[in-house]
Amino acid sequence: MVNIFGNKATRFGFGEGLVELGKKNDKVFALGADTVSSVAMDGFQKEFPERFVNVGIAETNLLGVAAGLSIAGFIPFVSTYGVFASGRPWEQIRTTICYSKLNVKIGGSHSGLMVGPDGATHQALEEISIMRCLPKMTVLVPCDLIETKKATIAAAYYNGPVYIRYGRENIPIITDDKTPFEIGKAIKVREGNDVCIMACGSMVYEALMAAELLEKENIKARVLNIHTIKPIDKQAIIEATKDCGAIVTAEEHQIFGGFGSAVAEVVVANNPVPMEFIGIKDTFGESGNPADLIVKYGLKDVNIAEAVRKVLKRK
Prior knowledge:
This protein has 315 residues and is of the alpha/beta class. It has helices at 10-24, 42-47, 59-71, 82-86, 90-98, 127-132, 145-156, 203-215, 234-244, 259-270, 290-296, 301-312; strands at residues 7-9, 28-32, 52-54, 75-81, 105-109, 138-140, 162-165, 170-172, 187-190, 195-199, 221-225, 228-230, 247-254, 275-280.
């Protein structure tokens, strides 16, 4: 049985983590891009107005100012919608921040399909790909509010640029304060040796629910929460290939170049086994109810379970 400790959007975990950091470290600075309350930065703004700047709808400037603050010795956190945090200022992130390994932390809120009615223009489905390809960039995709808070705090003490991906809609909280979190270390959240389901972000919950469905068919599925896409936990992935012999990956993101691709790079280089990929299959999203979109684009537990049945035939 999957333990659920309530439902809340992961963006609020980022906001809570930021406030906690502000209280403990006067070098933490925050910058917004006119979406301050919707990305949960308003708490930090109210508590530490002298360490907060709203640059307005000017994302390239947002990252440029953050770069300057990092050179001055601050730990700048920026946040806006993931589409705009990663896409519009990509050149600034690449050349100004990553090339010089500046200590800038980037929050990509409203990720995935679940911005719902905002539609394809606001549904960030590509940012894992375009962030993880950058040298020196660390990419975190926490699974719930509590893990997002931990990821935000951990990012402040991790040297170099970090991208943290989180969402707008309420999703189940499946971790607690005692659940371990370490950048670069996957978490085994369910035992099993027939197949391994590897997931990140909102899909960790769906993976656990899929494992429960498969249990009824006497299929024992291991579930890994791989919250760090880069640097990815190669040891946990290789171990799963040897123990389970088949893998399904699940992400609320394009299957090309994203989380599943990151896993496949490890698998093919070390111990190739059959794989199936759950994610967005080379299409843009659309406006709609978030829950309906997740069903339409095949990101539910039943879709993961079907992928497991398929991959087991190739094992």
